[in-house]
Amino acid sequence: MAIEVNCAGCRAKFQADERHAGKKTKCPKCQQPLVIPTTHAVARVASSPAPRTAQSAVAEAPKPAATPAPQQLDRQQISQALLKGFQGPIKRSRPSIMYLLSATLVALVMILLPIAYIAFIGLVGYGVYYHAVNHIEMLTSGNVRGRAIFLVFLAYLAPIVCGAIAIVFMIKPLFAGRAMHTRTRSLARESEPLLFAFVDRICETVGSPRPKRIDLDCQVNASARFRRGLLSMLGRDLVLTIGLPLVAGLNTRQFAGVLAHEFGHFSQGAGMRLSYIIRSISFWFARVVYQRDAADQWLQTTAQSLDIRIGWVLYLASLFVWLTRRILWCFMQVGNVIGSHLLRQMEFDADRYEIRLAGSEAFIQTSKQMQYLNASMQAAFNDLNEFYREGRLGDDLPQLIMSRAAEIPPALVKAIDNHMATTSTGWLDTHPADKDRVAQAWQESAPGVFTVELPATNLISDFTAQSKATTWEFYREIFGNKLDSNKLRPISEVVAKREHHQAARAALDRFFVGGWNIAEPVLASHDASRPPTNPQAALKTLKQTRQQMEAIAEATLPYFEKLSDALGEAIAAKQLLICVRAGMKVTYNKKRLSMRDESQIKKQREDAERQVRVARQNIAPYQKLATERLALDLQLFHVAQVAQRIPQHSQLAKKLHARFECFLIVGDQLQSFVEIVEKSASYNMLVQELMANNQNEEVFRAVQGLTRELHTLVHRMRSAFQNFKYPYDHATKELSLSNFLIPEVPMKDDIGSVYQAANQLVESVPALYERLLGGMALIAIAVETAVGLEKPPAAERTDAVVAALPN
């Protein structure tokens, strides 16, 4: 049987004998190196020729998706197809003697770092002991009398107290507990025989010990680890943790490759154990440097509660504790410098297991798909956050992530591909950049020994049930065991809500052509909720208004962007003024600012406010036409002849009244909202400064003043919303708009509650206003279509795509 081969260099086609499948050769025309496809992959690979470089490999690899399972295969047939798909063991690359020696050296240095830290503790302890024993004459000398005796006593006692506290805080990290693992569900071999058999075959193929247990979680990841840490390091006691979004988003070939990577770490006994030591010590250093506990809180609180004449000793002790953490930070950085290169090499080694098992092209596709799934998970969490604000949680997180993966916008795909193709590996990175990993995959040119492509969900007997149960465990980890299961709702409701939001946002962009800003709200009147006295005249005016609005759109739209930029500059200037007047030194545009720069900041604020006025003057005619057009559309919505031509008019009409009333009241309060936004920017910065340095009296007074101002504004807005019902579906029936936007009433002069309430408003009001205005725009477009006007064209979104890319 002949295999058709396509050359990626000159696009020439030629045929090769089947016995050469998987071997390297050169194009007879251009001498470009290539690999003969395997017979069972010809249909897939031949149409997608291998890329020539790592960068083009990322760009040209198609967006991966799981291949649908043949309908005629039952579970037994699928099991046979998967388990028979492994075509022998892969070629294992044995580590060189130099590699093992360097790994041993790195591991020894990493072990010496904690030992050096313990030695430093002993040195400090000896210093405290030496002072206590050899400087006792400070107290017995007869040369000191009166009040000076007390000062001398403090001078003698302070190093002992400070040293003792510092020693306790230095010893404490040595007994820091292990980091908590994500809450998981454990599977039994008897209940999931196919999954366990599949994993066993992968372990056999890569030469790794089999896991004793398989756990499930909701991460876009898979990991293998020693089940009992150091106690398992000398044995073969492994636990495999599988993220169900990974199972849902990959096919069996890609998923097998990911598992091969994880088990590849464990296929080399000595290297794997040395890697475990290096990673464990690195993670330990990172945790104890940045993690704080009750003892840290006690030291800070106690120092603040004592008179400064006594409390200064504890402040000095706090300084010693800070110094010990800086020492630990130095040890951590030394460990990173020493271990990062070796850890990257171990990742490259594990990649080779994945490449040789699943194939080079599958590796490239999997790398892209993992990035897509991570971006989709971030988008899914945004959906869940919105859903949770209405008192509910989606019951199947992996399904929600996959619904998001199916809707990845082209701009995000392009951003991810560009990131993968251009980001380089940093010298302190523990993982290589995707570009370098793809380059290795291309260099390997491996066809793979497992190429069966079915949805990986076939590996689990009832994937949906496991997915929902694992999602429930994920929520309980976040919200606690008392979480009410009644909050769970089908993911279809989350998806439906998102689709409605997307439709409303698209209508908003169509109607306003992207020209709207919450700082310049569209303010309708109650007249828009009633039918016009003369429908024909209203229709004529609508057509004229729309034509006028479209005529000036191109010239006006740039001023909306200028308005946003100028408002940002004005808010930043006001924030800087408040902060520098409170004695803070802040950095803006890479320049350090303080009180002496006040005149410069004032000029910046005045320039920004002038630009705001200019932008608003140019926007005003367009805004007036948009407001009039929207009002006319809403009036015509109530005309019987128009209503007959609008699908689901009666359902829309039932919801419109409450939403329109809410739209009016929110619009009335937007001026106060903008003021809250301006003050909150400064407030957040001041509160953070106060938390870091609560002895700064000027900052404290500034925070107090802003607390009172924000409390007045927040309380005024909450009172305005009190008598209006939240106009959308919510788990709590008859929820007021005030309770939705500000669930907790802020207490006067309470920094914490005012801080939280202001931030809640800043986050929730724009989303609600956009949702309400988008709903009005949906109705307006439906009305214009019903009266024979052409549907406005889709507006190209100008806002930046936020991609969930790794740092």
What descriptive keywords fit this protein?
disordered C terminus, single chain, 63% helix, two-stranded antiparallel sheet, four-stranded mixed β-sheet, mainly alpha, 6% strand, 807 residues
In what order do the strands lie side by side in the largest sheet?
5-6-8-7
Mean pLDDT: 80
Helix/strand-derived category reads mainly alpha
Beta-strand content bin:
5-15%
What is the molecular shape? Answer: globular
The strand count comes to 12
| Poorly predicted regions | 38-54, 65-71, 797-807
- The total of helices stands at 27
Ends distance:
48 Å
The main β sheet shows up as:
4 strands, mixed
Characterise this structure:
With 807 residues, the chain is mostly helical. It is 63% helix and 6% strand. The protein has helices at residues 42-45, 54-60, 75-83, 97-134, 137-140, 148-171, 193-206, 230-233, 244-249, 252-264, 269-290, 294-305, 308-358, 360-389, 397-405, 410-422, 434-444, 463-479, 491-512, 535-581, 598-636, 640-643, 649-668, 670-692, 697-721, 737-741, 751-786, and strands at residues 2-6, 13-17, 24-26, 33-35, 185-187, 211-217, 222-226, 238-243, 393-394, 488-489, 586-588, 591-593. The strands form five sheets. It has a four-stranded mixed sheet. Strands 1-2 form a two-stranded antiparallel sheet. β1 and β2 form a beta hairpin. It is globular.
